[in-house]
């Protein structure tokens, strides 16, 4: 497939691995922020091709995984209400709340539907005026434009039976929280290409200067990731701390200015709690006052919900790069995709799910390289 196969060229990946082995002189710790990159690293065995001096840590780049437990409980409470159609992307349906998940809620009779876009949910609201239609708006900056557009259109069209349950989080504040944490080991970051395709990468430039760490905007295929690692290590070996763009075929420095303008029209920046991590200042999005009528938390009176995280689940440490999934005592035994303790085991971008799929049963069987 064009634009994919050439970035899965095993020979090219091995050439970069050889160049990297010649380049590296010291030990370095890098973090990939995106869960999609984590899955690609394990699926294709990229980490096994790296020199032993290079350690990859897996960051909080899975929006499903960092959605707070109380947000899942709020979703379950809203979905169970009569005359509600609760809609979501498929990756949220099996994320455990305090008492079950959205699929189990559906099994008990709730009208829970998977959609492919928040605009699909808006169409459901138009087609079912007697129902309240709610969309679970989860994600990083990547999904924010579509969610903003759905609210913007609902406002423009005067649709009053549509609302969104917002759990949007922002990447740069989470990175700063990692960099400023006591005991931080991360010396360079592979920035998520899809986030930067929307937002550009100007927000990373002050972080690179302030903390003296390189950032490389990186894609998701094996060659992308190997090139990203090479570029980051080259900066480290040369004593540089800049923002570079490996993913130039999809990302510009300024990003998608129309999408950014729409996000800023509908949403405002707020503190946001991250599952397993806690509250990070200025790390989330919430609806602005002019669009507050579309806030499902307020509409259904669930804004004050709280919930206690599982003490056994180490997802917070995993999301911060302090632990790897296979270092969790419950991994693969008391915590599996069928019976997860946390979202990192069931999300399609979760680090625990990646380790379970590609390392627990398929050690040494990398697919491409």
From TrEMBL:
**Molecular-function annotations in GO:** 4 iron, 4 sulfur cluster binding; carbon monoxide binding; iron ion binding
Q: Which InterPro entries does this UniProt record tie to the protein? A: Hyd_form_HypD (IPR002780), HypD_1 (IPR042243), HypD_2_sf (IPR042244)
* Record keyword Cell wall biogenesis/degradation present: no
Q: Name one Pfam family in it.
A: HypD
One Gene Ontology term of the biological-process aspect is: protein maturation
What Gene3D superfamilies is this protein classified in? 6.10.20.100, HypD, alpha/beta domain 2
> Which keywords annotate this record?
Iron, Metal-binding
Q: Which family does it belong to?
A: Belongs to the HypD family.
Please state what the protein is called.
Hydrogenase formation protein HypD
| Protein species of origin | Candidatus Thermofonsia Clade 1 bacterium
Q: What is the lineage of its organism?
A: Bacteria, Bacillati, Chloroflexota, Candidatus Thermofontia, Candidatus Thermofonsia Clade 1
């Amino acid at each position: 497939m064009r634009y994919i196969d050439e970035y899965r060229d095993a020979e090219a990946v091995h050439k970069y691995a050889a160049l990297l082995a010649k380049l590296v002189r010291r030990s370095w710790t890098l973090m990939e922020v995106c869960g999609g990159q984590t899955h690609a690293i394990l699926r294709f065995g990229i980490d096994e091709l790296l020199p032993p001096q290079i350690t990859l840590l897996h960051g909080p780049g899975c929006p499903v995984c960092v959605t707070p437990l109380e947000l899942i409980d709020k979703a379950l409470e809203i979905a169970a209400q009569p005359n509600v159609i609760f809609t979501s992307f498929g990756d949220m349906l099996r994320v455990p709340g305090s008492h079950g998940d959205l699929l189990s809620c559906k099994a008990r009779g709730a009208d829970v539907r998977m959609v492919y876009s928040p605009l699909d949910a808006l169409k459901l609201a138009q087609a079912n005026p007697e129902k309240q239609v709610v969309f679970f708006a989860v994600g990083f900056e990547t999904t924010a434009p579509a969610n903003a557009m759905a609210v913007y259109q609902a406002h423009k069209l005067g649709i009053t039976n549509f609302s969104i349950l917002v759990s949007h989080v922002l990447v740069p504040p989470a990175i700063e929280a990692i960099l400023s944490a006591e005991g931080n080991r991360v010396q360079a970051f592979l920035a998520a290409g899809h986030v930067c395709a929307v937002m550009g990468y100007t927000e990373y430039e002050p972080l690179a200067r302030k903390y003296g760490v390189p950032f490389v905007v990186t894609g998701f295929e094996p060659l992308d990731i190997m090139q990203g690692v090479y570029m980051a290590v080259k900066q480290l070996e040369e004593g540089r701390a800049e923002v570079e763009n490996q993913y130039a075929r999809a990302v510009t420095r300024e990003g998608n200015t129309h999408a950014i303008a729409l996000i800023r029209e509908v949403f405002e920046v707020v503190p946001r709690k991250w599952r397993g991590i806690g509250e990070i200042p200025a790390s989330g999005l919430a609806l602005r006052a002019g669009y507050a009528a579309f806030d499902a938390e307020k509409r259904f009176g669930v804004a004050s919900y709280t919930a206690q995280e599982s003490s056994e689940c180490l997802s917070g440490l995993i999301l911060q790069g302090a632990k790897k999934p296979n270092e969790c005592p419950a991994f693969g035994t008391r915590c599996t995709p069928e019976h997860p303790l946390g979202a990192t085991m069931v999300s399609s971008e979760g680090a625990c799910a990646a380790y379970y799929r590609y390392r627990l049963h398929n050690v040494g069987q990398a697919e491409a390289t």
